Amino acid sequence: MLNKFMKFFKEEEGQGMTEYGLILGVIAIGAIAAFTLFGDSLIEKINEVRGSIFSTE
Predict the structure, then answer these.
(1) pTM attached to this predicted model
(2) Average pLDDT per run of 10 along the chain, which is 57 residues long?
(3) Can you spell out the DSSP letters for the chain?
(4) Cα-atom radius of gyration of the chain, to the nearest Å?
């Protein structure tokens, strides 16, 4: 019984998924921060490109 209990704490199968989850969380926070900081300039640039594509000159 003690061996099964110790094996439960030494098991590392879920460790990889936890690490991927943490990395994904850091990337998501970085993307949100980037869009928050550069959001207005990105919107202006997108509108500028859209205007040049759909201009009827």
Answers:
(1) 0.52
(2) 69 76 95 92 90 78
(3) -HHHHHHHHH--TTHHHHHHHHHHHHHHHHHHHHHHHHHHHHHHHHHHHHHHHS---
(4) 24
